[in-house]
Recover the amino acids of this structure.
C-alpha cells in the first residue's frame, strides 16, 4: 500500500472509530465505521509459548539419525510425524498447523535465537521482549516501542491488547501508551449496583494533566492514567463484541477462548494493531511427552481455528499470527523423560500474506554449542521483517540496531 | 526517574528521631503499620503514638511467634481444608491469618518468603505439602536465613515445583541449582553456567519419596565439585553453604527488602544498600536485626518511602479490612486476590510477584474496584461487629465529610486534594439509598481511587 494512502486510511479509521464505536451513536454510523475498519490496517497477533518450547519435537527432523540417537525415549518415529518434506515433519498433534502448511499459509523460520544464549526463563524472555541484554537499560518492549512510533488519536481504540491472566508481557510496555490486559470480556467492565456513579466519579476526579511534583507523583500519575485507560478501554471492548457471529467452532481451551475474543475484536473493527496471548507450561523437564502433546494440540487447534474464522469474516489477508518461545530445549533428552533449557528454536508465522515454507537450513544436531542448537537467525531479523514488511515501520529504531530482514511476506 | 545517588547512606540508615517538622504522629504510625504489616485501626494507632517509634518497632519484631490461642484457631481452619485437598480453600485459611493475626510483621514476612521461595499449588497439587511449607515459612519468617535456605532446599513442595523430585548422578537436574543462585540468593549474573552444572551435582541423590524428602546415597555424585571458586566433594548442604557465603547475597536480599518495605522505584544504588547489607552479614544472616534497622531508619520514615509503593492486592484488600476492623467472607477475599493478581499459594512463576507497577493494568484496576463492590455490597461484611454507619459514628465520624476524613487518615499515604473530596461528597449525595448504602458506596468509591492504591 502506498504510504500516503495508508496514512489517509489510518487517520480516517481513527476518526471513524473514535466517533463510531461510542455508546450513544446511531447504528448506521457504527456500521459505516465497521465497514471501513474491516479493510483497514494490518494486524499482528503474537502467541508466546512460555517455558521454552521443545522445537525439535515440534518440527521434527525425522530423517536425521542423530535425532533419535539423542532422544531414545522422546524421539518421534518417522511414521508418526506429519511430513512436510523429506527431512522434517510436524508433531502428530499439529494437524491444524499442517493443514495451514499445505494450504500455503504458514512460514517456519528454523533455528532462531541470539548470541550468547541465556538459559534463564526470565532473562531470556526479557531479551526477546526488550531486544536488550540485562546490562543495558531496558524500560520498554519492542512492541511498546513500535506503538511509540504510531500516532494515537485521543479517544481511539487501544493500539495493543494483552489477553490473559498472566502478568503483562514486557514486550508491550511502552513509554507513551498504556496497553490494557483483558482476561475475559465479561470481567472487563465495572460491576456493582453503583457502577455508573463510580465511573462518573473516577472520570471527574482524574486530573486533566499531570499535576503536582511531589515525590510520589510519578506513581500517582501512572495510577491515574491507568485508571483512565481502564475505564475507556473497557467500554469500547464491551461494545465492540456485542454484534459478533461466527460459524467456526473453537476448541474449549483457554488459548482458543482468547483467540476467539481476538477474532471478535478484529471483526468489530477495532483499530488495535497488536494482540498478545500466552500459552504457558512448556518447561518440560520431566515426563515431557504427554504434556508437550497437550500443549501443542492446544496451540495448533486454536491458531488454525483463528485463521479459518478470520478468513470467513474476510480478515484473513490482514492478520498475521506469530508464535515464539524464549528458548528451545537441549538436543539430548534427560533421564526424567524430559528436556532441559536449550537455545535456538523455530518461529512460526501464519496468515494471508505470509510467504509460505521453511526459512533457513536444517539445524545440525551434532555441531552444537553446550549441547544446544546453534541459531542461524537472530530473532530480531524476524521482528525486523514483521515491523518493516507487515506493520510498515522502520525497524531500526524499534530494535535498537539494524537487522537483516528475512523474506517472510509476499 | 530520580537519581538516588543524592541520598547519603549514613543518614539513610541512622535511626529516625522525631522532630518538630516530622513528629511521630498517627500519620507516621499508619505508614509503619501499612509497611511492616497491612494496616492498623484507629485505637492501635492511638496506642502507637503514645509510645516511641522504636518501642513500636521492637514490639512488631519481637512478636515473632503466634500465640497458642491464635495458632490453634488458624491451624484448625487450615487443617479442616487440607483434608479436603483443594489448595484454593487453603488460600482462604491464610486470608484468615492475614486479617486477624496480632503478629502483622510475621505474616507480612511469611508472604514475602512465599514470593521469594515461590512455590505454586497449581503444579504441586497437594494441599498438605503447600500448607506444611507455609507453616515452615512462618516459623522462620524472622529467623535465620541460612536455616531457611537449607531447609527450603529439602522442602517437598519446593522440589516438586522445581522438578527436582528425582536427581540422579548420571543426569543432575539443573533447575533447583539455577534458581537457588538466580532467584533465592545471588541474582542473575553472579554465577556462571558452569556453577549451575557443578551445583546441580551436589544435589544428586536428593529426592522425594512418599511425599517426604530423602537422600539416596546410590544416586549421589561424591566426586569433586568446583563451585563459585571453592572445591570439594560437596553434598547439597555444602552447595547451599557455598552459595550463602557469597558476598552478593546480602546485597541481593537488601535490595529485595528495600523494594518490599521502602519503595518500588527508583532502584537504590548498591552504595545506599551497603549498610543494610552489612548488617545482615554481620548478624550472621539473621533476619530480625536487619529488618529492625530498616524500619527504624531515617529513610523508612522519609519522603523516599512514604507513598512510594503501589499496594499489592493483599496490602490493599487486607489492609482496608484491617483498618476498619471489618469481617467478611474469607473465601471471597481469597478468590478475589487471585483475580487481581495475587492468588495465595498461586504465585505466577518461580520468580514470585514482581510488584510495583506490574500489579497494575486495566484488568486488575477494574478488578480491584469490583472486588471492593463485591465485599462492601454484601451485608454480611461488618465493621467492628456493626454496620458501617454505626462503626463510623462510634469512631466520631457522623456525616459524609467526617467519614471522608476518617478514611483519609486510615487508608491514605497522603491527603486528598480538596476537589477530590468535593467530587466524592457530590457523588455520594447523588446516590440513592439509605445512609448505610451511601456510606458503603463512599467506601467503595474511596478505595477505588488511584490515591488509595498507593501504600
Amino acid at each position: 500500500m502506498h504510504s500516503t494512502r495508508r496514512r489517509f486510511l489510518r487517520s480516517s479509521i481513527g476518526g471513524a472509530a473514535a466517533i463510531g464505536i461510542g455508546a450513544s451513536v446511531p447504528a448506521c454510523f457504527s456500521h459505516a465505521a465497521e465497514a471501513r475498519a474491516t479493510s483497514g490496517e494490518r494486524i499482528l497477533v503474537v502467541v508466546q509459548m512460555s517455558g521454552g518450547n521443545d522445537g525439535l519435537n515440534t518440527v521434527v527432523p525425522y530423517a536425521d539419525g542423530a535425532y533419535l540417537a539423542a532422544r531414545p525415549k522422546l524421539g518421534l518415529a518417522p511414521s508418526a510425524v506429519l511430513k512436510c518434506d523429506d527431512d522434517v515433519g510436524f508433531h502428530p498433534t499439529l494437524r491444524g498447523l499442517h493443514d495451514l502448511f499445505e494450504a500455503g499459509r504458514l512460514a517456519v523460520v528454523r533455528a532462531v535465537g541470539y548470541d550468547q544464549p541465556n538459559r534463564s526463563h526470565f532473562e531470556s524472555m526479557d531479551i526477546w521482549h526488550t531486544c536488550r541484554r540485562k546490562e543495558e537499560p531496558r524500560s520498554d518492549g519492542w512492541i511498546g516501542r513500535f506503538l511509540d512510533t504510531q500516532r494515537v488519536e485521543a479517544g481511539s481504540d487501544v493500539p495493543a491488547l494483552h489477553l490473559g491472566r498472566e502478568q503483562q508481557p514486557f514486550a508491550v510496555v511502552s513509554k507513551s501508551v498504556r496497553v490494557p490486559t483483558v482476561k475475559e470480556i465479561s470481567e472487563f467492565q465495572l460491576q456493582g449496583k453503583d457502577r455508573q456513579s463510580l465511573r462518573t466519579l473516577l472520570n471527574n476526579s482524574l486530573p486533566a494533566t499531570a499535576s503536582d511534583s511531589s515525590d510520589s507523583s510519578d506513581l500517582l500519575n501512572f495510577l491515574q492514567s491507568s485508571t483512565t485507560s481502564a475505564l475507556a478501554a473497557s467500554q469500547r471492548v464491551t461494545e465492540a463484541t456485542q454484534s459478533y457471529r461466527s460459524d467456526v467452532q473453537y476448541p474449549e481451551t483457554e488459548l482458543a477462548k482468547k483467540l476467539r475474543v481476538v477474532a471478535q475484536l478484529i471483526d468489530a473493527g477495532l483499530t488495535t494493531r497488536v494482540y498478545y496471548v500466552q500459552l504457558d507450561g512448556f518447561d518440560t523437564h520431566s515426563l515431557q511427552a504427554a504434556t508437550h502433546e497437550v500443549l501443542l494440540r492446544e496451540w495448533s487447534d486454536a491458531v488454525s481455528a483463528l485463521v479459518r474464522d478470520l478468513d470467513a469474516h474476510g480478515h484473513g489477508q490482514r492478520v498475521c499470527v506469530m508464535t515464539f518461545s524464549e528458548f528451545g530445549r537441549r538436543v539430548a533428552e534427560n533421564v526424567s523423560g524430559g528436556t532441559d533449557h536449550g537455545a535456538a528454536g523455530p518461529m512460526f508465522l501464519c496468515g494471508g500474506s505470509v510467504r509460505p515454507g521453511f526459512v533457513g537450513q536444517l539445524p545440525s544436531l551434532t555441531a552444537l554449542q553446550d549441547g544446544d542448537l546453534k541459531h542461524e537467525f537472530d530473532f530480531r531479523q524476524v521482528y525486523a521483517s514483521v515491523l518493516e514488511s507487515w506493520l510498515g515501520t522502520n525497524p531500526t529504531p524499534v530494535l535498537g540496531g539494524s537487522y537483516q530482514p528475512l523474506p517472510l511476506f509476499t | 526517574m530520580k537519581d538516588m545517588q543524592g541520598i547519603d547512606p549514613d543518614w539513610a540508615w541512622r535511626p529516625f528521631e522525631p522532630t518538630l517538622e516530622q513528629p511521630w504522629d498517627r500519620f507516621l504510625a499508619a505508614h509503619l503499620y501499612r509497611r511492616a504489616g497491612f494496616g492498623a485501626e484507629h485505637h492501635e494507632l492511638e496506642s502507637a503514638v503514645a509510645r516511641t517509634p522504636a518501642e513500636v518497632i521492637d514490639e512488631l519484631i519481637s512478636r515473632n511467634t503466634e500465640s497458642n490461642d491464635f495458632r490453634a484457631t488458624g491451624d484448625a481452619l487450615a487443617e479442616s481444608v487440607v483434608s479436603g485437598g483443594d489448595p484454593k480453600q487453603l488460600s482462604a485459611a491464610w486470608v484468615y491469618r492475614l486479617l486477624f493475626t496480632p503478629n502483622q510483621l510475621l505474616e507480612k514476612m511469611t508472604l514475602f518468603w512465599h514470593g521469594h521461595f515461590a512455590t505454586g499449588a497449581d503444579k504441586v497439587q497437594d494441599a498438605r505439602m503447600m500448607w506444611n511449607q507455609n507453616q515452615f515459612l512462618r516459623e522462620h519468617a524472622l529467623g535465620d536465613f541460612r536455616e531457611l535456605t537449607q531447609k527450603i532446599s529439602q522442602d517437598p513442595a519446593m522440589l516438586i515445583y522445581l522438578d527436582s523430585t528425582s536427581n540422579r548422578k548420571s543426569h543432575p537436574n539443573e533447575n533447583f541449582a539455577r534458581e537457588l543462585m538466580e532467584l533465592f540468593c545471588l541474582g542473575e549474573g553472579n554465577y556462571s553456567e558452569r556453577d549451575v552444572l557443578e551445583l546441580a551435582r551436589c544435589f544428586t541423590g536428593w529426592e522425594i519419596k512418599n511425599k517426604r524428602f530423602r537422600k539416596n546415597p546410590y544416586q549421589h555424585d561424591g566426586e569433586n565439585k568446583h563451585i563459585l571458586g571453592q572445591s570439594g566433594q560437596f553434598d547439597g548442604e555444602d552447595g547451599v553453604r557455598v552459595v550463602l557465603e557469597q558476598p552478593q547475597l546480602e546485597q541481593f536480599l537488601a535490595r529485595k527488602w528495600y523494594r518490599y518495605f521502602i519503595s518500588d522505584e527508583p532502584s537504590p544504588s548498591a552504595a545506599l544498600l551497603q549498610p543494610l547489607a552489612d548488617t545482615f552479614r554481620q548478624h550472621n544472616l539473621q533476619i530480625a536485626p536487619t529488618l529492625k534497622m530498616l524500619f527504624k531508619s531515617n529513610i523508612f520514615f522519609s519522603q523516599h518511602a512514604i507513598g512510594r509503593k503501589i499496594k499489592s492486592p493483599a496490602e490493599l484488600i487486607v489492609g482496608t479490612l484491617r483498618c476498619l476492623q471489618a469481617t467478611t467472607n474469607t473465601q471471597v477475599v481469597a478468590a478475589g486476590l487471585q483475580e487481581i493478581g495475587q492468588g495465595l499459594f498461586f504465585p505466577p512463576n518461580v520468580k514470585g510477584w514482581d510488584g510495583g507497577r506490574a500489579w497494575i493494568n486495566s484488568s486488575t484496576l477494574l478488578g480491584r474496584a469490583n472486588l471492593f463492590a463485591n465485599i462492601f455490597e454484601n451485608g454480611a461484611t461488618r465493621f467492628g461487629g456493626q454496620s458501617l454507619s454505626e462503626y463510623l459514628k462510634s469512631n466520631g465520624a457522623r456525616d459524609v465529610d467526617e467519614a471522608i476524613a476518617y478514611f483519609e487518615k486510615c487508608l491514605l499515604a497522603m491527603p486528598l486534594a480538596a476537589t477530590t473530596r468535593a467530587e466524592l461528597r457530590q457523588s455520594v449525595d447523588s446516590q440513592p439509598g439509605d445512609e448505610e448504602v451511601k456510606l458503603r458506596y463512599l467506601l467503595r468509591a474511596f478505595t477505588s481511587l488511584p490515591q488509595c492504591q498507593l501504600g
Summary: Residues 226 and 247 of chain A are 36 Å apart (CA to CA).
